[in-house]
Design goal:
- The strands form three sheets. The protein has a six-stranded parallel beta sheet, with helices on both faces.
- It has eleven helices and eleven strands.
- The chain is of the alpha/beta class.
- Helices cover 42% and strands 15% of the residues.
- It has a domain of 199 residues: 3-Layer(aba) Sandwich (Rossmann fold).
């Protein structure tokens, strides 16, 4: 059983390769920087998992053209090679940000997309192109929309939060009340393998998230428990924090408006569709267990 993966050296790719190899899949890793990459896709196999993409830049220093060149144009090239190949499934890793930068209620696959950033718009344009193509009989197209992914080795906002609690600094954003969806890398890998194995799962868009929601204040408490300290919560008026973040938009500073939004907004994502499609009730790791696994990995750095 052969799987082709682009972007296999990234955080998601490395974990997915290891997981699929444990399931006895043969993995072919393709670098799209190589001139002859197209020859590697023209083979028989079960799936192409396209992970290459331009990630959302919280410093807002990337040009819009770069997002569309990597996220849209390069994906279209890979997809066109898939159509000519004998590979059965094409997985495109999009993002919930292709739908919305902020969510009222719970985001599901029926939410009307209104992305605001070049990142989100490039992802949505790619989705729309793929969905408008005729998929030959015997092939499937899966568009995956993950929320915030985490796991051992991840260097995202969880790591920033960990550093604050580890140093004994009171969490200064406790006045912001929120709930968020997360996605443990173990659950992501489980879902991808289950989709490949289930020959009856139809093509379509599927949100990926853990089963439950968690607040940032709860995360601080979990981190403190793992570190064995109290993890103090400090409720500073939001208007003052927002003023500080605006300063960070202009000069180099640990907090800017984009990062503040990521740390304090509510962003809830439903995974009901993929679980119903695969006929599963719960993902292997609970939200809390997955987060604890990630946070414990920071202690061994």
């Amino acid at each position: 059983m052969k799987i082709v993966i682009t972007g296999a050296t990234g955080f998601v790719g490395q974990n997915l390769v290891a997981y699929l190899q444990q399931k006895n899949y043969e993995i072919s890793s393709i670098s799209l920087r190589e001139k002859e990459w197209k020859k590697s896709i023209l083979l028989e196999g079960q799936a192409i998992i396209h992970l290459v993409g331009k990630a959302h830049d919280t410093t807002n220093s990337s040009s819009s053209d770069e997002y569309f060149r990597v996220n849209r144009d390069l994906t279209i090239e890979v997809f066109n090679e898939f159509l000519k190949s004998k590979v059965r499934d094409f997985f495109y890793f999009s993002s919930v940000k292709a739908v919305a930068d902020s969510v009222i209620g719970i985001l599901d696959e029926n939410t009307v997309p209104v992305p605001k950033t070049p990142y989100g718009k490039s992802k949505l344009e790619t989705e729309e192109y793929l969905l408008n193509q005729k998929i030959p009989d015997g092939k499937r197209l899966f568009i995956i929309r993950p929320c915030m992914i985490h796991g051992p080795g991840n260097k995202g906002n969880l790591n920033l939060l960990y550093n604050i609690v580890e140093k004994g600094i009171p969490w200064p954003l406790a006045s912001f009340r929120n709930n968020r969806s997360f996605l443990c890398i173990d659950n992501l890998s489980f879902l991808i393998e289950a989709m490949i194995s289930d020959v009856n799962l139809p093509s379509g868009i599927y949100n990926f998230s853990d089963d439950d929601f968690v607040s940032t204040n709860e995360l601080v408490t979990v981190i403190a428990k793992i570190l064995g300290n109290k993890g103090r919560l400090l409720s500073i008026p939001p208007i003052f924090i927002q003023f500080i973040a605006k300063i960070g938009d202009v000069i180099p500073f640990p907090l800017n408006s984009e990062r503040l939004k990521k740390l304090t907004e509510s962003y809830l994502v439903s995974n009901d569709k993929i679980k119903k499609g695969l006929n599963i009730d719960k993902l292997p790791l609970s939200t809390k267990d997955g987060l604890e696994k990630t946070i414990r990995s920071f202690k061994g750095r």
